[in-house]
Amino acid sequence: MSERPDPQTLLCFRLYAASHAFTRFYKPILEPLGLTYPQYLVLLALIREDGRSVGALGAELMLDTNTLSPLLKRLEAMGLVSRRRMPEDERRVVVGLTQEGKRIAERAAAIPDCISTCLDMDPQALQTLIDTLGRLGLKLSETTPPRTPS
Known about the structure:
CATH class of the largest domain: Mainly Alpha
Number of domains: 2
Organism: Halovulum dunhuangense
Distance between the termini: 12 Å
Order of helices and strands: HHEHHEEHHH
Pfam family, one: Staph_reg_Sar_Rot
Radius of gyration: 19 Å
CATH topology of the largest domain: Arc Repressor Mutant, subunit A
Strand order of the largest sheet: 1-3-2
Low-confidence stretches: none
Mean pLDDT: 92
GO cellular component, one term: cytoplasm
Structural class: mainly alpha
CATH superfamily of the largest domain: Winged helix-like DNA-binding domain superfamily/Winged helix DNA-binding domain
Number of helices: 7
Subcellular location: Cytoplasm
GO molecular function: DNA binding; DNA-binding transcription factor activity
Largest sheet: 3 strands, antiparallel
Shape: globular
Helix content: 55-70%
CATH architecture of the largest domain: Orthogonal Bundle
């Protein structure tokens, strides 16, 4: 039997811990904007490309409809986005930023630069990390998990 792994040495634990640390780090930054982290991501996606279908937004942010729909309803209730059904296809819903949504999204769009400065990491090292995590995510999504050991 091999040595029992220390969670601190596992990639999955390090990613989990970093994700939680990021969530805690972002919370006080997003609170003045009245946003949660997932709402922030939606606004960033829409400020880049406004007027997108719910499906396209979900695909980019890797959120399923059951998660994205209530999130969009909350953003709509906050007056930040509008949702409209397309007349040519009633099943298709397009999401767009309102004027207030654009104002908040513009402020939110400045956050990544602020975070990079706060982290005081070499920009090239940071980009390498982002690229590596992107490749890891893609590989994980394309790989069938192994069976649980007996």
